[in-house]
TrEMBL record:
The keyword Cell inner membrane applies. PANTHER family: ATP-BINDING CASSETTE SUB-FAMILY B, ATP-BINDING CASSETTE SUB-FAMILY B MEMBER 6. The lineage of its organism: Bacteria, Bacillati, Actinomycetota, Actinomycetes, Pseudonocardiales. It comes from Lentzea alba. Belongs to the ABC transporter superfamily. Siderophore-Fe(3+) uptake transporter (SIUT) (TC 3.A.1.21) family. This is ABC transporter ATP-binding protein. SUPFAM superfamilies: ABC transporter transmembrane region (SSF90123), P-loop containing nucleoside triphosphate hydrolases (SSF52540). One of its GO terms (molecular function) is ATPase-coupled lipid transmembrane transporter activity. Residues 330-563 form the ABC transporter domain. It is a multi-pass membrane protein. The chain crosses the membrane at residues 21-41, 53-70, 131-150, 156-174, 237-264.
């Protein structure tokens, strides 16, 4: 465990941890030795010459003072190493996740990631911060006590030497048993935690369906699995733990009997027997504590595994330098892609010429969002290429690629900050005039005027203080402020009131000026006005052309339009967003 921690640290940080280990090790050894000094003190007192005890008492006092100083320095160094370690882990996790592809950030993963950065990092930092001291006491003090015993009486020391391995063997056996079940318990409790969060998040849906906690089978099952895993662990571990405690107690009893026999036979004096017993107690106490310590260490080890899993996630390969770009058209060149074995996009080819608008339409699940994600390189294609300005997105460095793109996805996420800060995300150094111009063009100015503190109004976590239409206008204002040449737009499917709808439509019209726009279209007006429509059907391009052409063709698109006019809704999404689907906002 310690060596795994050391591997994660820089040489300076390692030195800090070594310092803590050194101080605490020396302090624990001093404690062991100080027990030996009780022997001459006792002998002097029992021999009727108490004055002879004074120098030994002096040495004992000096050693105790040294112990206190070294011990406290070790504790402080350990705490410091713990905080350093937490900093190192946060930094490494932070540095690493920004290199991971956007597709890595699914809802489930971001949930796990928050557990990793809080609970798991805390647990790992506890190793140098809180466990190092009892660990040193558990390992070094008994060893020092045993060595000291050899000076008191070699036969008692031999007794320790003979019984010690039995204790060690049972300890290792218990550890192995627990480790086998620990992972299962951790996985089951993580699953149950995830289900509880999902249950809380989806209260509206569940209540509307008349499903209370009792009726939510997945949650019930996960809780039962978690409980069963914990029970199984207890059943597996209890014999080991009992065996360990028993072996430690047996060792203590053996030493007790041995000392009594030696004393009765006159082979050791009373002082030596008393010291042997004190040392035996000091030997067994930390060993018993080690059983609990083992559990804490194992938890930290599982937590470190979780941290390591995130650190081991592979970033997409990046070029050292971005290749040059031509006019910013978006080209799908025989693109195939699938999240797993099944292809979601199959040999898709089309081009969005520079400065034009292409609408993607198709049934739910036909692959529209996936195509959009591939442009922003959430994932790499399986075959073919997605090109921007003639350059494969894989030949662009991520910051260069993302600088070209303004994403306006459904359900825009807003940070719990002021409206101004949220819009400024598009271009942090924008002047007030630029900000207001973007707001005007995104039809956000009327929202700013209406809010109590104008630009300085806080929008609440996730932008809850704004309506759906208002949040979309914030996203459009962000995109206008960023002024990126390529816009990826997923139109809102949620019904907006007439005023909000016309405001959003006007704002989107502003976005399409002089930009290459790929839009997942849900509104009839958007598809009608697009320069080109790509109809996706089960991941393949079924039709491609302008509105009138496709209507005349009387194929899939014409049927969609007929349905649309019939139902006054482009399509009804029939699936819930999957837990493993990337967060697109
Ligand atoms: N992260 C993911 N992991 C696995 N499969 C996914 C993931 N995201 C989407 N899919 C699957 O890929 C297919 C295409 O999904 P996509 O979201 O691209 O379709 P869509 O046309 O945008 O649908 P909608 O209009 O409902 O948003 C679907 O079958 C979907 O279940």
């Amino acid at each position: 465990m310690i060596s795994r921690l050391l591997r994660l640290m820089t040489p300076t940080q390692r030195a800090e941890l070594w310092r803590a280990i050194g101080f605490l090790g020396v302090a624990a050894a001093m404690q062991g030795v100080s027990f030996a000094l009780v022997l001459p003190v006792l002998r002097a007192l029992l021999s009727g010459a108490p004055a002879d005890a004074v120098p030994w008492l002096g040495i004992l006092a000096a050693l105790t003072v040294c112990y206190a100083v070294v011990q406290s320095r070790g504790v402080i160094a350990g705490r410091r190493a713990g905080y350093t370690l937490a900093g190192v882990l946060h930094e490494r996790l932070g540095d690493h996740v920004v290199t991971l592809p956007l597709g890595w950030f699914t809802a489930a993963r971001t949930g796990t990631f928050s557990r990793v950065t809080t609970q798991n990092v805390m647990s790992v930092m506890g190793v140098p911060g809180h466990l190092l001291e009892p660990l040193a006491n558990a390992v070094v003090t008994p060893v020092a006590a045993a060595i000291t015993l050899a000076f008191v009486d070699w036969r008692i020391a031999l007794g320790v030497l003979l019984t010690g391995p039995a204790v060690l063997v049972t300890y290792r056996w218990t550890n192995r048993l627990v480790r086998r079940t620990d992972r299962a318990v951790d996985a089951a409790s993580a699953e149950a935690g995830g289900q509880v969060v999902e249950f809380a998040r989806n209260q509206l849906v569940l209540r509307a369906a008349g499903r209370t906690a009792d009726g939510f089978r997945q949650l019930d099952d996960a809780l039962v699995r978690s409980r069963n895993a914990a029970r199984r662990m207890l059943r597996t571990v209890l014999p080991g733990l009992a065996g360990f405690v028993l072996s430690v107690q047996a060792m203590f009893t053996a030493l007790l009997i041995l000392s009594a026999i030696l004393l009765t036979n006159g082979e050791v004096d009373v002082a030596a027997a008393v010291v042997a017993l004190v040392l035996a107690v000091r030997l067994t106490e930390p060993l018993l504590a080690a059983a609990e310590l083992g559990a804490a260490l194992r938890m930290a080890s599982v937590a470190l595994d979780r941290v390591q899993e995130v650190l081991d996630a592979q970033p997409l390969p990046e070029p050292a330098q971005s290749s040059a770009l031509g006019p910013l058209a978006i080209t799908f060149d025989r693109v195939s892609f699938g999240y797993d074995d099944e292809l979601v996009l199959d040999d898709v080819s089309f081009t969005v010429p520079h400065g034009t608008t292409t609408a993607l339409v198709g049934a739910s699940g036909s692959g529209k969002s996936t195509a959009m994600r591939l442009v922003a390189r959430f994932f790499d294609v399986r075959s073919g290429a997605v090109r921007l300005g003639g350059t494969d997105v894989r030949d662009l460095r991520t910051p260069d690629l993302l600088a070209l793109i303004a994403p306006v996805f459904q359900e825009t996420y807003l940070f719990d900050a002021t409206l101004e800060e949220n819009v400024r995300l598009g271009k942090p150094d924008a002047s007030l005039a630029q900000l207001e111009e973007a707001a005007r063009r995104a039809r956000l100015d009327e929202v700013v005027t209406r809010l109590p503190d104008g630009w300085h109004t806080r929008v609440g976590e996730g932008g809850t203080r704004l309506s759906g239409g208002e949040r979309q206008r914030v996203a459009i204002a962000r995109a206008l402020l960023k002024d990126a040449p390529i816009v990826l737009l997923d139109e809102a499917t949620a019904a907006l009131d007439v005023h909000a709808e016309s405001a959003v439509t006007e704002a989107m019209a502003e976005l399409s000026h002089d930009r290459t726009l790929l839009v997942i279209a849900h509104r009839l007006g958007t598809v009608r006005d697009a320069d080109q429509i790509v109809v996706l059907d089960h991941g393949r391009v079924a039709e491609l052309g302008r509105h009138e052409e496709l209507l005349a063709h009387n194929g899939l698109y014409a049927r969609f339009i007929a349905q649309r006019e019939h139902a006054r809704g482009w399509h009804i999404a029939t699936r819930l967003k999957r837990k493993d689907e990337p967060c697109t906002t």
